[in-house]
Every structure is written in structure tokens, then in C-alpha cells.
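Input record (Table S2, row 205):
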Amino acid sequence: MNQPARLVVLVSGAGTNLQALVDACADPAYGARIVAVGADRDGIEGLARAERAGIPTFVRQVSDFETREGWDAAITTVVERFEPDLVVSAGFMKLLSGDFLERFLTLNTHPALCPAFPGMHGPRDALEHGVKVTGATLFVVDAGVDTGPIVAQVPVPVEEDDDVDSLHERIKIAERAMLVEQVGRIARDGITVEGRRVRIGPASR
Ligand code: GAR
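Output record (glycinamide ribonucleotide complex):
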């Protein structure tokens, strides 16, 4: 069997998407292994989840660097050390530099149906807009905010009595399942990105 794909997962908070990947990676047939978990802040549950799973962690906090460029370089250097095949930004609330994105194929998960409601408040913005269906999007990170080529999407209905938390929690259930399924497929079969088109599967000859 091929070596499992090496994943570096970046987190900023609760880390439930990370946990779903940790659980999936416990099965050797899944085809991926998390070699490190990185964060932009200390003391978060995402890091504790990694530590409980025996996964190496690192923290690079923007405020510890004189310039944003300094942080950009530091996060690139530390991720490089783990030689990832794929980086997964799972609730990581920082933009990554162009240099980082050129070096590492990076996926991000967003709690809305892109291109709708980009940014930090996808569930809130969807609720305020009054949409009846929202969802989650897995995409290849590019220079924009939640603008990259789309790998997969899952719809989630908005219920009449939803508040931001209840809607986000429902989205996250669908989001985790999508993330686990698609990252596994990519780890086992590969991914090709041509312009905005993403295809999972062996490279065609
Ligand atoms: C997820 O819903 C993720 O899509 C969202 O933060 C949550 C993290 O949850 N990310 C964004 O809104 C980025 N724009 P988790 O820490 O439990 O995985």
C-alpha cells in the first residue's frame, strides 16, 4: 500500500473539524496521517485535541512578530519542516501568504455556500440575509477570502427558529462529514486543480 498522505492541520478554536480528521486517520484504510497541528494562538481546544492524540503541535502568534511578513515566513518555515502533502485549514482564522500557498496545496472549509457569505461570520450573514438554504464549502485556498476553486459543497436548511449558534452547529455536522470524505478521497486518489475546476482522482494521461 502507498504511504499515507501527510497532513498538516491548522486551527484557531474548538477543533471539531480537526477531531473528525483525527478519528478518520485512525483507520489505516483512510490513507492519511496528521503529522502536525498548528495554531495562531495558545490555549485552544484544537491544540488540546492534537496533544491528546499524540500529534506534534506548534503555535505561531502574529503578535509575537514585529511584522506580518515575519509571521508569514515563520508559519511557512514550520509547516515546511513537516513536509506535508496537503495542508488543511480547519477553522484557522488567518490568511496565508502567497508564498505559503505556492508551496503547499491548502484546503479550507467555510460555513456557507461560497461564493455567498465569505469571511468570519458565514452563519450570521446567511441568517441575516434570510436564506432558506446555506451550507458548507471545501475549497482550495487562493489569495482571496473564501474565493478559491471549490472542491465540494453540502447544503444545510435554515430552520425558522434558528439562531447563529444553532445554525452553525447544524452546518458543522455536515461540514465535518464533507471534510472527512473529501480529504480521504484526495489522500487516496490525488487532486488536480485547473483554473477553477477541481477534480479528485488519478492524473489523466
Ligand atoms: C468551522 O465551521 C469553519 O468552517 C469555520 O470555523 C469553524 C471552526 O470549527 N471557519 C470559518 O468561518 C472561516 N471563514 P472547529 O474549530 O470546531 O473545527
